Amino acid sequence: MKKNNVTMYEAVNEIARRRGFFWPSYEIYGGASGFMTYGPLGSLLKRKIEATFRDAFLKPLKMLEIESGIITPAKVFEASGHVKSFKEPMVECTKCRRKFRADHLLRDQANISDSETEKLTLKQVSKELKRHSIQCPECKGEFGHPQYFMTMFVTRIGPYSDSVGYGRPEAAQSIFVEFRRLFEVARERLPLGLVQIGHALRNEISPRQGPIRLREFTIADIEFFFDPQDAKCNLLKQVEDETLPLIPGTLKSQGLKEALEVKVSEALQEGYIATEWLAYFMVLAKRFLNSLGVPDEKQRFIEKLRWERAHYSAQGYDQEVLLDRLGWTEVSGHNYRTDFDLKQHMKWSKVDMQVFKEYDQPKSVDRVFIKPIRSTIGPAFKEDAKKVIDVITGADASRFMQEMKKKGYVLAENFRILPEHVQVSRKTVEEKGRKFVPHVVEPSFGIDRLVYIALETAYEKKKDRAILKFPREIAPIQVAVFPLVTKGDLGKKAQELQRKLSEEGLEVFYDESGSIGRRYARADEAGIPLCITVDKLTLADNTITVRDRNTWTQVRIKIPELVPNLNAYFDRKITFEDLGSISN
Amino acid sequence: MKKNNVTMYEAVNEIARRRGFFWPSYEIYGGASGFMTYGPLGSLLKRKIEATFRDAFLKPLKMLEIESGIITPAKVFEASGHVKSFKEPMVECTKCRRKFRADHLLRDQANISDSETEKLTLKQVSKELKRHSIQCPECKGEFGHPQYFMTMFVTRIGPYSDSVGYGRPEAAQSIFVEFRRLFEVARERLPLGLVQIGHALRNEISPRQGPIRLREFTIADIEFFFDPQDAKCNLLKQVEDETLPLIPGTLKSQGLKEALEVKVSEALQEGYIATEWLAYFMVLAKRFLNSLGVPDEKQRFIEKLRWERAHYSAQGYDQEVLLDRLGWTEVSGHNYRTDFDLKQHMKWSKVDMQVFKEYDQPKSVDRVFIKPIRSTIGPAFKEDAKKVIDVITGADASRFMQEMKKKGYVLAENFRILPEHVQVSRKTVEEKGRKFVPHVVEPSFGIDRLVYIALETAYEKKKDRAILKFPREIAPIQVAVFPLVTKGDLGKKAQELQRKLSEEGLEVFYDESGSIGRRYARADEAGIPLCITVDKLTLADNTITVRDRNTWTQVRIKIPELVPNLNAYFDRKITFEDLGSISN
User: Fold this and answer.
1) Cβ of A90 under 8 Å from any chain B Cβ?
2) pLDDT the model gives residue B4
3) What span, in angstroms and rounded, lies between the C-alpha atoms of A300 and B36?
4) Residue A392 parent element (H or E)
5) Mean pLDDT over residues A92-104, rounded?
6) Fewest CB within 10 A of the end CB: N or C in chain A?
């Protein structure tokens, strides 16, 4: 199973470029790091991977998809915490003025892990840079003081200079911002999965690694909403006996480097995974990667430690895939975002993001009620009295009184509210249901990385020829059609066949140039699973040969049987051998 | 055929919002003009329209699709001419500081057509505003001097302040920028259609009209490259007898308001359409709109006059659709971009964008050759001698000598080159082919407008109920499945059926809440063509009823026949009546 370790990354990128899967954009202008163009094969492959994603996640859970814009008003990312948190430490060389990510310098030149630098303050970063005498890798110059660089793209929306907009660094926020309407449209069901696949932007300081770290990329975000008091996953039965290759945080901090194979049920019992839905999605994610060709043994889930996690995450696992030159590479993140985002937007927009869930039957409950006492508030707060009254009226009474009990006062918007300002009463009321902010688990995939990984995984050398052994479901082109010779009726017949298969919805490639051997080689390199050749016998008995990309064996089949058999083959209802009779 | 003219636009937007097709984004933050969110039904509808677009254009011409980024280095749009041309005249109210598009003010308050204002300089705009005493529509304040506002979004790529990036206002430029590689990948064939469907950005000054004028939108750009010396369209036969509803520029400037029905062959003969491929695509565009439900009589193609055209266009037609409240609305532009873009990028990048086309047999041709004469250049240009030598060496010899003949000198990069600096020779050479920059026709569609139009076109009131009569190809959801009653085996059976149809690749909606009448109404409003009901008889004889959205008639059909019949129905191989036996 070992492939040529020295050159696989280069070989894959070379084939990607030459055959038009993808390449760095703007080459004629000297390039622009972090941007990639998909050519015809890559664009097909990418869309197939997106379709596979929909089949793997959306269908079984009846999740709903949305599409919104990339440019986003500042307020959204102020509320979500991104404006505050989405930044990287950067240093500038005092000599050549080049700028670098300080954490990458520490990793590359001082061997300090990302996990370690995540913990450091700017001051500590500065100290570490000095302690390890780190110099500019380009000119050996000295570095200035590290600063934070915000890694969202900034722009202005419309002609007003104060109307700041950001390029979204994820596709999740628009789901949270539009949650109320989406929840209504979905007829208020929970659990509810909402999904967005689309471009996102991160203004990396100095991106490298081709398709792995891009400034513009495609993300597939699933936001799965559920009731935290009813957090059971009703589909857990289907996956609880499966194992996941896990590096849980507790064991990681004790030095665990190799993933353990842990049963889902055990991972939940041991508390390795915080909530059932997260575990369920991790299994789906493993299977999804399987369907792109990545076997279990090249996958693992590694937990992020507290300081490595995004600001919104209560628990986070990265799904990683083992790549040739790049080593373990993140392909998806599985975060338990709790009610963080909805609560933030609730706070910033003042729009209620709670949902209402009816009880099976009404319940009698003791409730605390509070009311502002105007006669004591007036003298105490003067012109701010109105504000204080609003605070008390709008507060969650039971939480308000808990705080009052604990501290003897409640601090709200800088007002110190005392017991004498509040009238408290208790009543037994009949409640039909409860209101709450749903919790969210988020599986989030980087689609471009998956495209690269599908390519590297499919790549194989056979007799000095490159073959891309894509699983048949994601092969960008499904069938090639060749006339054995170009002239006369064979060419016409082959073109007719090409047209017919294309109308049937297959992606078909017609090729009549060069020897049949050259054409097979070209098709193998493009990862086309089946090659159909129209030869002299075709004109006599209406049969054609079909050749298998993986084994180079051929079968002969009658043309009228071709379409149903091909459909069955691509639906994995039959094998290649079932397609027709083996002919050589 | 008349629908309720007063409220259709509102009714469609109301249904779009309530049922989750689309709505203005960021409502919880008070909205942000020019951004729209697609909900579940809208996102499905949009993807169906994109798929229909691919079927209509990509398949018959074997065009190739690409995907690239939205953020683009400044150089690309400097070369393309957008930085210079992509701007609108803007005025600011001196009192309330609000900003407006000056041309829109002139249109709305002084009845000066867009076509007229396009011609005006900033000074003339200013004069017209004064002449018509135009005031701020918000506060009646006076306006300051008009300025140009660049309608591309501006950002910075990476941490360097001079690294300007623009949000692309079209998806075409990356095709031009990557043309060399794409041409190679396509094995150097011409004609060659390259396509990109993706988000684009225009920083409108004050967008309105909901889904029609957005700041972020989805564009589908076809760049169709051909040899200008071999500009015949080989598929013209298929369309030349069709008629197009045309308002050619020559007749438009003479006052023609209603489109003429002109045969394609005649439109070409009369010179109404400049080149055959443009005419061919206009017919495909008309048919494409047909397939979205828009009949011929609600379409027209109106030519843009010289001053109305984009800077890259030698001829341009807008395809327009007649809408209820919005009137004639542009849905696509058909521009003859010639070799403008490739030449610009060739100039700015210094990369040769020419293609080579082999002659059937080599030709003997007389060629002019020029060489710099160093002994005369040296003294004349001194330290610039090297530059002049480069200019002469790099020049197109025959064009250089044509200019020399005409003017007696050649002006290049500010150097005046005289006959004495150039040695001219003539030779007969054998040439195997010729080099040239391909020409381009560009059909370009606004996908969001098509989504709105599909909705408005499908909208119908029947017995006080809204029905969206989408053509079956673009209906977001194809089938609804209902158990007549929820309890017991009927519910189970219906869910099983839902799952099975979903696995077959159909988009299926399961609904068990409310009366069957309510459920039919809900399905009609979502535009679901077929509703399947599982009833008591189903358990006895394994049949179900299928109800037609458009006629409300029902047929009864055996479950094993359902999948093949549904597939045939959605492929338009059979009608609704063929699905089963009419049951009431």
Assistant:
1) yes
2) 47
3) 38
4) helix A385-394
5) 92
6) N
B319 near B313, Cβ under 8 Å? Answer: no
Alpha-carbon dihedral sign for residues B445, B449, B450, B451 = positive
Q: Which residues of B125-138 are buried (b: 16+ CB within 10 A; e: fewer)?
A: bbebbeeeebbbee
Six-digit token pair at B464?
A: 């006080």
Residue B2 is predicted with a pLDDT of: 46
Residues A140, A160 share a domain:
no
Residue B101 sits in a domain of what CATH number? Answer: 3.30.40.230
Is residue A459 in a domain? no
pLDDT (0 to 100) of residue B117: 87
Judged by a CB distance cut-off of 8 A, whether residue B234 touches chain A is: no
Distance CA B369, CA B198 (A): 46
A241 & A329 share domain: yes
B144: exposed, middle or buried (C-beta count within 10 Å: 0-12, 13-18, 19+)?
middle
CB within 8 Å of B505: residues ≥ 6 apart = none
CA distance A192 to A182: 10
Q: pLDDT for B476-510, tens place per residue?
A: 999 999 999 887 889 999 999 999 999 888 999 99
Inter-chain residue contact A36 with B187, CB threshold 8 Å: no
pTM beyond 0.80, yes or no: yes
Of the residues A154, A155, A202, the best mutation for testing chain B's interface (the one with the most B CB atoms within 10 Å of its CB) is: A155
Structure tokens at B532: 């399947």
A560 falls within a domain = yes
- What is the CATH classification number for the domain harbouring B509? 3.40.50.800
Beta bridge partners of A444: A221, A333
B496, B479 in Cβ contact below 8 A?
A: no
CA distances from B184 to A17, A20, A39, B9, B179 (A): 11, 9, 11, 47, 8
Nearest CB to A67 within list B46, B66, B158 = B46
Phi-psi region of B404 (alpha: psi -120 to 50; beta: other; left: phi over 0): alpha
Contacts of A187 in chain B (CB under 8 A): 513
The CA distance from B198 to B53, in Å, is: 13
Q: Identify the CA nearest to A158 among candidates B159, B519, B421, B206.
A: B206
SS (H, E, C) A466-484: EEECCCCCCCCCCEEEEEC
3-state class (DSSP) for residue A295: coil
Close Cβ partners of A454 (under 8 Å, ≥ 6 residues apart):
A45, A49, A292, A293, A470, A474
Nearest chain B residue (CA) to A75: B29
With CA atoms as reference, the chain B residue closest to A510 would be B62
B365: in domain? yes
- Domain membership of residue B286 as a residue range: 8-78+154-341+440-447
Do the chains contact at B37 and A174, CB–CB below 8 Å?
A: yes
Positive/negative CA dihedral, B95, B97, B98, B101: positive
Mapping DSSP onto H, E and C, the string for A203-264 reads: CCCCCCCCCCCCCEEEEEEEEEEECHHHCCCCCHHHCCCCEEEEECHHHHHCCCCCCEEEEH
Q: Which amino acid is at A335?
A: N
CB proximity A69 to B under 8 Å: yes
Q: Are residues A366 and A285 in the same domain?
A: no
Query: Does the N-terminal peptide bond of residue B146 adopt cis geometry, omega within 30 degrees of 0?
Result: no
Identify which of B25, B46, B59 has the shortest CB distance to residue A174. Answer: B25
What's the domain count of chain B? 4
- pLDDT value for A582: 65
In this structure, which amino acid lies at residue A56? Answer: A
ipTM field? 0.91
Query: Is there a domain that residue A336 lies in?
Result: yes
Amino acid residing at A149 = F
Q: Which residue from B28, B204, B216 is facing A177, i.e. has the nearest CB?
A: B28
End-to-end CA, chain A = 27
- Tell me: pLDDT of A2 over 50: no
